[in-house]
Amino acid sequence: MKRTLVLLVLAAGVLLVVIDRTLAPLAPLRAAGSAVYGTAESAVGTVTRSFGGEQRLRALERENAGLRADLLTTTRQGPAVSGHEGVAAHVVGFGRDRSVTVDAGSGAGVTRDVTVLNADGLVGKISWAGSSTASVSLITDASSSVGARMAGSGELGMVTGLPGDGLLRLSLFDPNAPLKAGDQVVTLGSAGGRPYVARVPIGTVTTIESVPGAAIRTALVRPAARLSALDLVTVIVPEPEG
């Protein structure tokens, strides 16, 4: 009977760990049951790590990063920029100047002035890279400037950051260009894909700004990526030579 009870406790602990780590967070339930399942979860975690669970997770994240990069930067004519690959990284800190820190650096091939995106769209660019961490300047930073193209009309312009509002300002070069709320904005792309690769979603037009006699047409854009809740991102880096 005692052996059966121990096995049931261990099985329950395994089930909680699997659900928590693969399906959905169970923080409240885990906290409430920690006294019962703590020992079992610890034991299972040790076994999982010993079989390379963390390495497998990292491998899957790297593969996912590569697929995300391909999906968001591929046009009908083929890849937007060749000779690049995606590196998975987690956001581990927020800066005061519209920047975040990620847990991948030069050791993973991350360098300055390369694109950072997530599953939804453009996040920013690498502004500094250490050996194991790097800083990302977000597109909402006041100094941010991204060449842009309207996904529908193909009209060209520039997107700049509006700190404090969480929005972007779109400036189209043609003051008579067609523009309406709901239009999608994507990156124009830079030479060699640095700092920005082409065709990455930037955001959606929310408000058309009316300035009579202006030489350009402007609008407010809501970023496609939820920049206040970043987690897993992809850094587009040059493929290693050789």
Task: Specify the biggest β-sheet.
Answer: 6 strands, antiparallel, barrel
Strand order of the largest sheet: 3-4-7-6-5-14
Oligomer: single chain
Number of helical regions: 4
Strand content: 25-35%
CATH topology of the largest domain: Thrombin, subunit H
Our count of domains comes out at 2
Question: Would you count the extended β strands for me?
Answer: 14
Uncertain residue ranges: 2-51, 75-79
The CATH class designation of the largest domain is Mainly Beta
By CATH's scheme, which homologous superfamily of the largest domain applies?
A: Rod shape-determining protein MreC, domain 1
* Alpha-carbon Rg, integer: 22 Å
Shape: elongated
| Arithmetic mean pLDDT | 76
Terminal Cα span: 62 Å
Description:
- With 242 residues, the protein is of the alpha+beta class.
- The chain folds into two domains: 2-51; 57-242, Rod shape-determining protein MreC, domain 1 (Thrombin, subunit H), CATH 2.40.10.
- The chain is built from four helices and 14 strands.
- It has helices at 2-22, 27-32, 34-50, 53-73; strands at 74-75, 78-79, 84-94, 99-102, 115-117, 122-129, 134-138, 145-150, 156-162, 167-172, 184-187, 201-209, 217-223, 232-238.
- Strands 3-4-7-6-5-14 form a six-stranded antiparallel barrel.
- It is elongated, with a radius of gyration of 22 Å.
- The N and C termini lie far apart (62 Å).
- Belongs to the MreC family.
